[in-house]
Amino acid sequence: MSSIIDQVSKRKTLAIISHPDAGKTTLTEKLLLFGGAIREAGMVKGKKNSKFATSDWMEIEKQRGISVTSSVMEFDYNDYRINILDTPGHEDFSEDTYRTLTAADSAVMLIDGAKGVEAQTKKLFEVCSQRGIPIFTMINKMDRETRDPFDLLEELEEILGMRSYPMNWPIGSGSDFQGIYDRKHQHVEIYDASNPNKVKIYPVSDIEGADLTELLGEAAHQRLVEEVSLLDVAGDPYDEEKILNGDLTPTFFGSAISNFGVQSFLEHFLFMAPAPVGRVSSEGYVDPSNKDFSGFIFKIQANMNPAHRDRIAFLRICSGKFERGMSVKHPRMKKSIKLSQPQQFLAQERNIIQEAYAGDIIGLFDPGIFQIGDTLCGGKEFTYSEMPLFSPEHFSRVSIKNALKKKHFLKGLQQLTEEGTVQFFESTSGLDEMILGVVGELQFEVFEYRMQHEYGVDMTLQRLPYQLARWIEGDSYKPALFQASNAKPVKDKQGRHVMLFENEYSLRWAQERYPDLKFHSQSNFS
Ligand code: G4P
């Protein structure tokens, strides 16, 4: 039996971050196909396939055809165990998407070559960047007309502040797309539009050699030589440390739909991406190879199986080995619990697992004992750092239609804030004003629907004009400072001071007016 260290070193846990339609589902599918985890394309793609929209309470989701279930996918490739965390992106974009990133050790940033860096990618990038995890960039859809590759790299720097190191370089795009030049392996991979799955590889001993002119044609060859020498001279050098710190992004070009460049991306990724990294806890740094099991819950999903109306808590294992049926400590609840029905996920199928290691994600049946951010430990008791709250983008004032239902409302609110569906804020004005915040607008509908159907509470949600929440740091802060401004002083569920702003402009105004105060986009800034 292999040791915990061996098992941990084989694991890579990643999240794919992208804007809707960049090709995340397509890329995920191709990766799973390589690992033999699925047999045909179309198995992951829930969003346009009603067969997979299984949750019953989420009638809204069914109507809109949104998938909720493919939360984690794992597969094996070349002796590695790869865990892909799904980051819901379309209308189901929510705080869950951000929280999922806290469970990943690296991110793959997928960009549509014709569109460049888009809004959602930027938001997800910022969360990854704050965590300092390595980010691997894949520029997709090279089989279509794309923007100039240098422009795309410049955009990474201008919009995201991220320097890049192209691992390969495209030879043309769209109808002129001929393939890629792999800078590390020094070979050309030729793309054949009529048979894109069949990649032909030509070793390159001299990039200026006549054999390449013959292969690519004079104009394309000359352009490749010029562009690659420009990268060599003026581009950033390859720097492993910067890559692992998230300061330099290795960049790849390819076409997910044609499965072109995907395998070579995967192999480079596996070589460069980190194995599971340790986490900071109340007892200091916990190494993944520590023999005692530990982990934290980053996501709770209600009623994944309509037959059981259960909740599943997703736990990222941070250290040690998990064994089915083991007893662990639940420090927040101050009790021991037995983990008897752990589940592992592959797309829609759930499998009962026997063992898992640091880096893996397991799903735990939750009879209502877990909250997002909970730590579970097999050995000595400790807790991992608190799971941050992320700034919502939509806010509503909430009132209950029937005051007699207040108790039910509070119970539902408790449950749904624990699951992370909504964030709750209270006005500091002395008025009994309750405000809900969500990252994705759909969450308001989910909240209303579940309150009505599970707790029998009808409410009125009145939209407010705010778009940003900032947690405030600074001793000189008083809510009264902001009385005359458009911003709204509130407190979060833990009683921390938060300011709601209408836009970036009013946030900047506050930052300039009160330089002693710091305005954080996440709750755990200390
Ligand atoms: P998402 O999960 O990021 O939202 O993207 P998804 O994979 O669903 O891809 C969005 C669209 O882009 C799909 O087309 C998909 O086929 C296409 N696509 C993905 N990768 C590539 C690529 O490398 N090249 C080209 N040319 N297209 C790509 P669709 O028409 O919206 O959906 P479908 O009918 O093909 O499923």
UniProtKB/TrEMBL annotation:
Domain of life of the source: Bacteria
Keywords: Cytoplasm, GTP-binding, Nucleotide-binding, Protein biosynthesis
Stored Gene3D superfamilies: P-loop containing nucleotide triphosphate hydrolases, Peptide chain release factor 3, domain III, Translation factors
Subcellular location: Cytoplasm
UniProt-listed HAMAP family: Rel_fac_3
NCBIfam families membership: prfC, PRK00741.1, small_GTP
Family stated for the protein in its record: Belongs to the TRAFAC class translation factor GTPase superfamily. Classic translation factor GTPase family. PrfC subfamily.
Record protein name field: Peptide chain release factor 3
Organism expressing this protein natively: Caldalkalibacillus horti
